[in-house]
Specification:
The chain is of the alpha/beta class. Helix content is 41%, strand content 18%. The chain has 2 domains: 165 residues, Rossmann fold (3-Layer(aba) Sandwich), CATH 3.40.50; 177 residues, 3-Layer(aba) Sandwich (Rossmann fold), CATH 3.40.50.
Length: 355
């Protein structure tokens, strides 16, 4: 048995927080002793299984000294073998002397400023690009590891679940649907996606074409205004932030990641898990996992015209979408499944402890 403590700060449920929940729950299900340290009242706590041990620490900011002392006291008392931190705030508040237990692993899901991560004992990068980035910034290569994310496998939802969503958002039963999921933030490229969608025909194969943007964020109002300016307001749907975002991917004929910057692209894994074709920009994370024309389709960054052309081509070619979806699903099962990723983490823990 390997005892591990997993520390994540904040009340939001972004990609890193959701992954921490999935990994902690998966380790717990495998009988591994696990402790979750998270913020009181946060959504992370509510997502963990009821019998997972939790301790709440405010972790209000990176200079929250009482929280740093509290975390140190918890680790001295509980004495886990491994402490794994997610994102910058939790990592900066966690300090363990080198050469002593626990071994501190910092997980990085993006191209963050490396300064606040150097004091960890080992690092997990969710993509090869992030791993190379850390090594270029002087991190020791033998202590930087690549382990991807996993998302839950999905059984197809019955029509009785999906049909009401179509009615709720006034989408015709015969519509072709393009779905994008993510935070409405400039790095996600939703402005380029709207500009691209504005040039895609309103009808393809005598079927109306709709775009669903699932998420919320600082660009919410400006993106909705932009859609109206482009004349596509009637063809775009805005469900907001949803815990059931995957249902909108299931409704889709094509899932899109339009990001300008992406550590990996969990939305791609989620689309693959649902057996859906993926179109993505050539952001570093998606390029690491997509082979163009095999398990997905790639277009240049910041190029709405190329994105529109690819979107129209894939919407017109159902057989190509099915081919991409099937290959993407195989990639998900072999490289990004729960079994593969949890086994990789347990193997890393054993390796570090043996050293």
């Amino acid at each position: 048995m390997i005892t591990s403590a997993h520390i994540v700060a904040g009340e939001a449920l972004g990609g890193a927080e959701l992954f921490s929940v999935r990994l902690v729950n998966a380790l717990h299900e495998r009988g591994q002793p696990v402790l979750a340290i998270n913020s009181p009242g946060g959504r992370v706590s509510a997502k963990l299984q009821a019998d997972v041990a939790q301790i709440h620490v405010p972790m209000r900011a990176i200079w929250d000294l009482p929280s740093r002392w509290r975390i140190s006291a918890i680790l001295r008392q509980r004495q886990p073998d491994i402490v794994q931190t997610y994102m910058g705030r939790a990592t900066r508040l966690t300090h363990v002397d080198r050469g002593r237990h626990p071994i501190h692993i910092a997980r990085l899901g993006g191209y963050y400023n490396p300064h606040g991560y150097r004091h960890a004992h080992a690092w997990v990068a969710i993509s090869l690009g992030i791993r190379d980035y850390l090594i270029r910034h002087g991190f020791p290569a033998r202590r930087v590891f690549h382990i991807s994310n996993f998302v839950a496998s999905c059984n197809p939802s019955p029509p009785a679940v999906l049909r009401p969503l179509r009615r709720e958002f006034a989408i015709p039963d015969d519509a072709l649907i393009v779905t994008a999921v993510g935070r409405l933030h400039p790095v996600k490229g939703f402005d380029d996606l709207l500009a691209a969608f504005a040039t895609v025909p309103e009808w393809i194969h005598e079927r109306p074409v709709y775009l669903i943007l699932v998420g919320d964020g600082p660009m919410n109002a400006s993106l909705k205004c932009y859609a109206q300016q482009l004349g596509i307001g009637q063809r775009v749907r805005w469900p907001g932030w949803r815990d059931d975002a995957g249902l909108f991917q299931e409704m889709a004929d094509l899932c899109i990641c339009a990001s300008r910057q992406e550590g990996l692209g969990s939305v791609i894994l989620e689309a693959w898990a649902r057996d859906r074709a993926v179109l993505s920009t050539r952001a570093q994370g998606p390029v690491d996992i997509i082979t163009h024309g095999e398990n997905g389709w790639l277009t240049p960054l910041d190029d709405p015209a190329a994105l529109a052309a690819a979107m129209e081509r894939l919407l017109r070619d159902e057989s190509l979408r099915q081919q991409l979806a099937a290959s993407g699903h195989r990639t998900f099962l072999t490289q990004h499944s729960e079994e593969a990723i949890v086994s990789a983490y347990l193997g890393l823990y054993q390796r570090l402890l043996a050293e």
